[in-house]
């Protein structure tokens, strides 16, 4: 029975999708029951794999149709679930269940609900298939189904022009990404005449040619498009913003995570290239740029969901940086942050959905004072906001702290500093959201809004509680979930050995079976003292700069301003005439860095051709980098 | 002869990317996506080709000791890829029709309410 | 549509559609059924069958095509085809083997139509799904165009 669990976890979702397609649109009870049963069964099947895989340290392999390897040559499609796959599978299947539960009430008023659930289940199933597969082409097929379903769900509210526009942009950019992945798959197939990940990993072990490096570069760019790393991220805010919130949650929670998994699988296990400093530097640089640009763009937003989308990009930057460090601590931090990001970003998107459900808008300029009418949503939002900004008793703090420490230990001190600054900016922009959506004055038209129904609050509360638990008991989370996954990431030889047999693996690997010992220096990981000292030093530094006249307003010339509201930032003389919009809390900062923000607005210009150009340019730059520096 | 295939598929891929990047008409972008797909499909089918090989069908009577098959796996992969490509094109075309309905134009310079 | 030339053109297309639609149907079904013996299979045959839908649309117009083919029925049939495939694939698990395993494969002589166990049935399920799915897709696209003209 155990070996059938991965395929059952995938196929229940697919069967659920097909059954939903048969049910009449009006028959809501039956449809919701089928959706709930399918997602819940998938979750249970994934949970049942916990004991054999993480508890006992086995790896489940499964050959479709019993087509086992012949003479050390994989001829069938294989599934392989190791600790890394299961780690991703667990929180992905959990968030699918929660999203389904949330959807029932949330999209009640929409039409075309049957199509929504078919696509919802297709997307979930394809992500589960992507996580559990052991076949390169299968990965492509699954990620393509995923993109397809995501695009259709982005355009779900197709009576809105924005949704259709975002869908078209998403499919144009997404199909370039998929094409790059397919091209890389073809090139690898042409080299090794196999598609099995384990067999390719064996053949590729310390055996790079210029052709395989070409495939590596294309594949990394392809998955970077799916993960929305920075120069390819332009469609992400559009898609996250226009999709229904339960789907935005899945975009950031499972679609993004699937691509993170793809990068991990390709770079660590298939190519085993992460011991090369050049590849490490590429990922760290990429991740740092991603987190910085994501958060600065988020500061300038005035739509709730669009702001969250930019934060999602920024947080994925942390994950990429963490896994790019290639130390045990770095991988632990990256994986932990991936888990936490699913929880708190899902929570925040659900909060945005609750606000939309209650008021019909997510525009921060129109909202305000909702905490009075929706106290539970406000409380949940604050838990999520504190988690994402890395405030101590919540889970974001732990994973961010591990990443700071890992990047500092690995000798990337500037990355640590940028990560800290990004974290502060994250907090700043969530203060803005809290201030303009949940606190302040309640607009007249929202006098009668009510708290969202229970079936929407339950998933939010579950995620909020998990956020707190992850922050209070970080050591048990790492011990029972993340350390086994990080071990699996580092131990490519075992992956090959279990899938293709010891005879095949011993051809390529010398030290078979004994995993590299990972040295977890988690010492400074839960020491608020260190945090306090850092805070003190920063405060001291700012005081010093202020005393030396660094912030003296006399240095700035602002007399030629056309808009009086900027005067307020320095002296406050014309305060009575200036009006700052609810979402414009940081107008001073935005004004100071106006050249940067103007440039960013120019880059995010909404023309799909330019977005495609940036993807192509990214591919070109990565290709050049890989050919020049990776040996 | 096979070299010709490879050259053609590279031309198709580059042409597809060029079309997506430069053409301002949404319809032409869909065509570019198609070209990109066809280029990769051509590469995929060329990878499995072996000069002198026969079709990979189990027909004992027509085989002798010297005959061998071309690689059947890329053919299956190409078929899958064509199916996916067709689906993507269909969805993209549906979205193009919807864009035309909402915006009254297919010019990508004008279809940009989401920006910044 | 009042132009006389159009009417004559439609007549020619109608005759051609009358002639080619049955051929397409028969060829497609043949290819679906012989998927395990000869090149082709469920997908290829399904697409050929679905091309008959295009011919009916070209010959008789959108109204007739939807009345004959009933898009809603096609949509449901597609899901049924997918479920059939899942069922036959799951048979492998019920018969103590792996998913997608071919069971009952000892029936008949190699080369016969019924000689390959569930592979034949899976092929048929795929063909059924594709012919209904692609047919539905084609009708949907034409429907969008037809609405725009009206």
Automatic annotation (TrEMBL), chain A:
It is found in: Cell membrane; Membrane. It is a multi-pass membrane protein. Keywords: Cell membrane, Lyase, Membrane, Oxidoreductase, Transmembrane, Transmembrane helix. InterPro entries: CPA3_Na-H_Antiporter_D, NADH_UbQ_OxRdtase, ND/Mrp_TM. The chain crosses the membrane at residues 6-23, 35-54, 84-104, 116-133, 168-190, 210-229, 250-271, 283-304, 316-336, 342-359, 379-398, 410-433, 454-473, 529-551, 611-630. GO terms for biological process: ATP synthesis coupled electron transport. Its EC number is 1.-.-.-. Pfam families: Proton_antipo_M. It comes from the Bacteria. GO terms for cellular component: plasma membrane. The keyword Membrane applies. One of its GO terms (molecular function) is oxidoreductase activity. Residues 134-426 form the NADH:quinone oxidoreductase/Mrp antiporter transmembrane domain. PANTHER family: NA(+)_H(+) ANTIPORTER SUBUNIT D1, NADH DEHYDROGENASE. Belongs to the CPA3 antiporters (TC 2.A.63) subunit D family. This is Hydrogenase-4 component B / Formate hydrogenlyase subunit 3. It comes from Thermobrachium celere DSM 8682.
Automatic annotation (TrEMBL), chain B:
The chain crosses the membrane at residues 6-23, 35-58, 78-99. It is a multi-pass membrane protein. Keywords: Cell membrane, Membrane, Transmembrane, Transmembrane helix. The keyword Oxidoreductase does not apply. The keyword Magnesium does not apply. It is found in: Cell membrane. It holds the Pfam family Oxidored_q2. Gene3D superfamilies: 1.10.287.3510. One of its GO terms (cellular component) is plasma membrane. InterPro entries: CPA3_antiporter_subunitC (IPR050601), NUOK/Mnh_C1-like (IPR039428). Belongs to the CPA3 antiporters (TC 2.A.63) subunit C family. This is Putative Na(+) H(+) antiporter subunit C. It comes from Thermobrachium celere DSM 8682.
From TrEMBL, chain C:
Residues 12-134 form the Na+/H+ antiporter MnhB subunit-related protein domain. It is a multi-pass membrane protein. Its main location: membrane. The chain crosses the membrane at residues 12-33, 39-58, 79-99, 119-146. Keywords: Cell membrane, Membrane, Transmembrane, Transmembrane helix. PANTHER family: NA(+)/H(+) ANTIPORTER SUBUNIT B, NA(+)_H(+) ANTIPORTER SUBUNIT B. This is Na+/H+ antiporter MnhB subunit-related protein. It comes from Thermobrachium celere DSM 8682. The lineage of its organism: Bacteria, Bacillati, Bacillota, Clostridia, Eubacteriales.
């Amino acid at each position: 029975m155990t070996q059938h669990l991965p395929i059952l976890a995938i196929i229940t979702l697919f069967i659920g999708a097909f059954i939903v397609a048969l049910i009449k649109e009006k028959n809501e009870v039956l449809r919701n029951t089928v959706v709930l049963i399918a997602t819940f069964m998938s979750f249970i099947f994934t949970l049942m794999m916990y004991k054999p895989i993480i508890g006992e340290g086995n790896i489940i392999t499964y050959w479709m149709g019993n087509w086992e390897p012949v003479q050390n040559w994989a001829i069938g499609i294989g599934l392989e679930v190791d600790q890394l796959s299961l780690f991703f599978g667990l929180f992905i299947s959990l968030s699918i269940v929660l999203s389904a539960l949330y959807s029932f009430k949330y999209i009640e008023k929409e039409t075309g609900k049957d199509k929504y659930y078919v696509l919802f289940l297709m997307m979930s199933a394809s992500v589960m298939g992507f996580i559990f597969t052991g076949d390169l082409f299968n990965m492509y097929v699954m990620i393509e189904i995923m993109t397809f379903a995501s695009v259709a769900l982005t355009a779900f509210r197709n009576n809105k022009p924005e949704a259709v526009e975002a869908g078209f942009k998403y499919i144009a950019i997404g199909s370039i990404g998929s094409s790059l992945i397919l091209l890389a798959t073809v090139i690898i197939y042409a080299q090794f005449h196999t598609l099995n990940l384990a067999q390719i990993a064996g053949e590729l072990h310390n055996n790079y040619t210029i052709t395989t490096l070409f495939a590596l570069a294309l594949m990394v760019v392809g998955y970077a498009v799916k993960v929305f790393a920075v120069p390819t991220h332009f469609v992400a805010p559009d898609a996250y913003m226009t999709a229904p919130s339960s789907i935005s949650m899945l975009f950031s929670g499972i679609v993004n995570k699937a691509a993170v998994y793809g990068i991990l699988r390709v770079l660590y296990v298939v190519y085993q290239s992460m011991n090369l400093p050049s590849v490490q530097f590429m990922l760290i640089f990429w991740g740092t740029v991603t987190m910085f640009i994501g958060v600065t763009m988020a500061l300038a937003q005035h739509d709730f969901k669009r702001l969250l989308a930019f934060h999602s990009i920024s947080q994925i930057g942390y994950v990429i940086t963490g896994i790019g460090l290639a130390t045990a601590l770095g991988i632990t931090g990256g994986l932990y942050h991936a888990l936490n990001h699913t929880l708190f970003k899902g929570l925040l998107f659900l909060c945005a959905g609750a606000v939309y459900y209650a008021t019909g808008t997510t525009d921060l300029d129109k909202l305000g004072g909702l905490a009075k009418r929706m106290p539970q949503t406000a409380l949940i939002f604050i838990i999520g906001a504190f988690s994402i900004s890395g405030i101590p008793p919540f889970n974001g703090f732990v994973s961010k702290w591990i990443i700071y420490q890992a990047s500092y230990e690995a000798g990337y001190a500037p990355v640590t500093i940028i990560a800290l600054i990004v974290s502060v900016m994250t907090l700043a922009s969530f203060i803005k959201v809290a201030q303009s959506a949940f606190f302040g004055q309640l607009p007249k038209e929202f006098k009668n809004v009510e708290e969202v129904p229970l079936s929407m609050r339950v998933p939010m509360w579950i995620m909020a509680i998990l956020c707190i638990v992850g922050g209070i008991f970080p050591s048990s989370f790492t011990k029972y979930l993340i350390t086994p996954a990080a071990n699996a990431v580092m131990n490519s030889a075992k992956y090959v050995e279990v899938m293709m047999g010891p005879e095949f693996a011993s051809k390529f690997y010398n030290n078979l079976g004994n995993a590299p010992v990972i040295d977890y220096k988690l010492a400074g990981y839960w020491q608020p003292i260190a945090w306090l000292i850092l805070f003190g030093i920063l405060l001291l530094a700012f005081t010093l700069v202020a005393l030396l006249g660094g912030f003296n307003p006399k240095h700035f010339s602002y007399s030629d301003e056309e808009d009086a509201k900027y005067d307020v930032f320095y002296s406050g003389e014309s305060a009575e005439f200036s009006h700052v919009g609810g979402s414009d809390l940081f107008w001073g900062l935005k004004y100071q860095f106006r050249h940067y923000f103007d440039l960013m607005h120019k880059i995010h210009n909404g023309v799909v051709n330019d977005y495609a150009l940036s993807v192509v340019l990214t591919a070109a730059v990565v290709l050049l980098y890989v050919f020049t520096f990776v040996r | 002869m096979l070299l010709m295939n490879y050259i053609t598929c590279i031309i198709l891929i580059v042409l597809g990317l060029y079309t997506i990047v430069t053409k301002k008409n949404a319809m032409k972008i869909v065509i570019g996506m198609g070209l990109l797909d066809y280029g990769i499909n051509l590469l995929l089918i060329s990878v499995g080709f072996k000069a002198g090989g026969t079709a990979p069908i189990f027909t004992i009577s027509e085989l002798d000791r010297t005959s061998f098959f071309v690689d059947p796996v890329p053919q299956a992969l190409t078929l899958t890829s064509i199916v996916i490509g067709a689906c993507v094109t269909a969805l993209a075309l549906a979205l193009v029709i919807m864009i035309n309905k909402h915006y009254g134009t297919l010019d990508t310079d004008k279809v940009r309410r989401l920006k910044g | 549509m009042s132009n006389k030339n159009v009417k004559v053109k439609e007549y020619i297309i109608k005759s051609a559609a009358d002639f080619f639609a049955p051929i397409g149907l028969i060829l497609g079904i043949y290819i679906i059924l012989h998927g395990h013996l000869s090149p082709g299979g469920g997908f290829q045959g399904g697409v050929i069958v679905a091309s008959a839908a295009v011919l009916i649309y070209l010959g008789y117009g959108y109204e007739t095509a939807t009345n004959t083919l009933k898009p809603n029925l096609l949509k449901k049939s597609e899901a049924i085809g997918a479920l059939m495939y899942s069922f036959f694939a799951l048979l492998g698990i019920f018969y103590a083997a792996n998913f997608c395993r071919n069971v009952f494969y000892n029936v008949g002589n190699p080369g016969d139509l019924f000689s390959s166990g569930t592979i034949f049935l899976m092929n048929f399920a795929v063909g059924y799904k594709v012919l209904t799915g692609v047919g539905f897709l084609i009708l949907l696209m034409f429907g969008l165009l037809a609405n725009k003209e009206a």
